[in-house]
Amino acid sequence: MDFSQHLRECLDREFQRNQLLIPAKVAAVGASLCLKKAYFMAMIDHMPNAHTDVRLGREGTAVHDALAMLAVPVTYEYFRQRQRYDPSAFLEERLEEIWGRHADVVERFSNISTSDYRLTRERVEALLRGYLALVDWAHRRGLISEHVLVFPERQLISKVVKTGDEVRSLPLIGVPDVLLVDGKNSIIVDWKLRENQNNAMHCLQLAAYKLILKEALGVDPHAFLIYATPKRKETKVVSINEEPPDLKEVKTIKGKCDEKLVEIAAGALYSMAFCRNTLRALVKSGVKLKAYNPTRGNGENKYPCKYCPYLKLCVYRFSRDLPEEKARLRKEMYKLYRTALRKKSEEYANLVNWDKCVEFDEVEFAEPNVIKLVKNFSGSEKHKDIMRYSLGRTTVYVFLRDGLPYPEAGEAPKVFSPALFGRYEDDEVQYSGGRLTAYVRMVSPTFAIRWIPVYLLYKYRGAERVWKRVRVCPGQVPMNIELKALAVAENALVKHFGQEGWFLETLKNMVMAGSDEY
Ligand code: SF4
Q1: DSSP element (H, E) containing 136
Q2: Which pLDDT does position 48 carry in this prediction?
Q3: Which of 62, 205, 468, 515 is the right S-S partner for 335, CB 3.0 to 4.6 Å?
Q4: In a mutational test of the pocket of ligand 1, which residue from 305, 306, 312 has the highest number of ligand atoms less than 8 Å from its CB?
Q5: What is the whole-number distance in angstroms between the Cα of residue 332 and the centre of ligand 1?
Q6: Which residues neighbour 392 within 8 Å (Cβ) at sequence distance 6 or greater?
Q7: Which of 26, 36, 272, 317 for a ligand 1 pocket mutation test, highest count of atoms within 8 Å of Cβ?
């Protein structure tokens, strides 16, 4: 059986009952580096809601966070000044003042402070130089106007699964650093703080975002990586699979990668999670995805296995020749993983409860972290229509009519992109004189990176139609807790196998007892 047939059969058989969204970054690792590594990331590490890589470090996270807070005001400030826009002076003269305008909200609700911003300012400015050069280019080319909508850290989700003659599968979730949408035109921008041998991975990550957006908008988006590395002290803009724009202020090059590969990798990762013999089918297929033998790697220095954080786990997990006790542990762990995976899959299947969505006529920010929703009822509406707005005190996703797919009533869209999520304050729903008001409160400083930019967008573009007619749907935020807990237990056991100690014994007994339960 060839690989495409293997994937097709796996997805056809499993996807209805086992859903899994593969993070775009993970699919890119699978497409560019090692499928096994991507599998470990998908199962163990990667929180689908994380906006930065867990390994990015404090400084990298601070740079990303500062840029998320600045992208909206900087873009509209550019349009305000575009007649006399001077690229070399703009950031130097204006950035401090732009930051200062919203610093109180950012400091109050998020994890980033003004001193973080100042410490990272050099890199932030270097990256914004590339960004503004792109905005200016896109504006001059007629791709975007002052009506463009700017979405930093916007979640894109595609549940499209295609298994035609060609290998195609697309259960993907991604969060581009900035998304610009103007009508059918869209531009994806991702900040990169490191350049290394794996730039192909960055290219493929953007290729994954492009796939989702194209599915959503029907038009191929433009996508760019912006690099500002301390070593080179230069800003570089890489266009993904198209000729680079002519930007005077920064260096530009063309990035090339096989977009199809990222789709195949997403499908292959799904198949590794739910179907048997995926790697065997892959090895025989000639498809250009790599999955190394961890004990050999590639070449004399055993790249990339020698430097892989999953090396020990990988040897144990994929070995055909394990000592009996380890083999038994692995078998029992598999059972537990399957249970945790089923749970994760349920989370994805029930991510948004489309049957319970309610529509409002207006939305406004009552406070930076609270939105007020208004629904006007005419005399003909029935009590049961009004009662539908009692959603309970629950997590909700808010969809705006902002150019990205808007879920219409009675529809479970395959591609969607919530603008906000937060907690629906059911006890604060009020109805009087045909007017119903409800409130959604944004949650946790970790997620402020998502909603503060929307609040800023509202500040700059509050008068637009975007804030009319919004759809609010109950749902849940996917976590990875059970899988992570299992991975931690398994890692500890694999690393210290054969050693004595009450802790390891207890852990081993728990695994064995736990798997017996299921
Ligand atoms: S050790 Fe090698 S084969 Fe295993 S996950 Fe890492 S890179 Fe892939």
Answers
A1: helix 121-140
A2: 47
A3: 515
A4: 305
A5: 22
A6: 424, 426, 474
A7: 36
3-state SS assignment for residue 516: helix
What gap in Å lies between CA 375 and CA 469, rounded to an integer? 9
Beta pairing class for 420-424 and 170-174: unpaired
Q: Tell whether ipTM is more than 0.90.
A: yes
Phi, psi (degrees; rounded to nearest 5) at 44: -110, -55
pLDDT in tens, 165-221: 554 556 889 999 999 999 999 999 999 987 765 589 999 999 999 999 998 888 999
Domains along the chain?
A: 1-314 (no CATH), 354-474 (2.40.30)
Tell me the β-bridge partners of 213.
Answer: none
The two tokens of residue 62 are 């601070």
Beta strand 22-23 pairing with 170-174:
parallel
- Ligand 1, residues at Cβ distance < 6 Å: 34, 36-37, 40, 292, 294, 297, 304-305, 308, 310-311, 314
- Give the 3-state secondary structure of residue 229: strand
Average pLDDT, the chain: 88
Provide the token pair at 427. 């006890």
Distance CA 133, CA 226 (A): 11
With 70 as the cut, is the pLDDT of residue 51 above it?
Answer: no
